[in-house]
Structure prediction request, 390 residues.
Amino acid sequence: MTSSSGVGSWPGTRPREAVVAVRDLLGDGIPHLPELPARGVGADMIGRAAALLEGLHVETQPYGWRFADRPGKDEGRAAAFLREDLDELAEAYDGWSGPLKVRVTGPWTLGASIELTRGERAVADHGARRDLASSLAEGVASHLDGVQRLVPGADLVVQIDEPGLPAVLEGRLPTQSGYGRLRAVDRAEVRDGLREVLDAAGERTTVVHCCAGDVPVELLRESGAGAISLDTSLLDEARWGQLAEAVEAGVVLWAGAVPTTGGDWRTARDLLVGPRQRIGLPTTALGDLVVTPTCGLAGTPPSAAVSVLRTTTDLASALTDRPPGEHKRSSWCISWRLTPRSAPRRPLVHSPGTNPGEAQAEGEWISRLRILPVGPLGSSSRTQTSRGYL
Prediction:
């Protein structure tokens, strides 16, 4: 069955609202822990991953992130943002059983974005590249263990983000002065560094995401990634061919097929299915597909982000012959977290786009509700719906 997921980033600054929104929109697919870069320094993808590094410390300068000799307030802020997000994740996914994706910036994008104390990018130094990959691998392993303890029933999916990988491979990164270009890193070293971080996930499902048009599909496959996530609208015929070989070798395609600017699921379906047919991939292989937006949604308004994820789930439904639009279309819904019988249930009544806590006063009977299950009945989803008292 074709599934749906998001890329990672989300608009706004309130983690509780973001975590719940993504859970409710993607509850039938692969929900993820959203990132909220609008909160500022430390909530961005570089700061978030830097907070995971074992034995390495970072700080910010006017031009960006830089390695430091000791922990500082910038690193502390990034770690605090991550702890806050994980607290909200644990509450929202209490009792959850099913897939749950976490996202980490990869070693090559991180090395291209963090500078050494002497001012050059870390990716320019062989020793720094080696230490960064090892440190990140340790941090990822520890991070995943922590998330697993918070949501023990989750089947964790690990996404490694590498938007800067093509520039590292092709020597397109500017030097500190801006007048030159850093030397390209050897392909084998790039592959092995990425593999080291992927191996830190253990037996969990791994995905490498690269939203660049010149994504190195063959290298990602050789690194051991279980799935490749990319913007399919940017692929030329040659890369579609490489992708076909990867899929035939057992790599799962996470197709970024829904534009972040919005659009109709029918158009996204045609743009996705057409190239697959031209390169000889049968449409029956779509059952092993995960569809996503083309990129993160941090730059979109909240209402637009919700619309994009709904289009994504509609596209997944269409590709599995389910009627699009059957996902959570009620004007109101009541849901509660499943808790032990000894604990009282705490229902949540809300209307989409409003603050749940402001919807109704405690003890008030809610009438004229059109109820639709948040998760499929009889499934392992932890949410149920009903009509009743608060």
User: Anything to note?
Assistant: Residues 11 and 299 are 6 Å apart (CA to CA). The longest helix spans residues 126-150. The radius of gyration is 21 Å. The first strand starts at residue 3 and ends at 4.
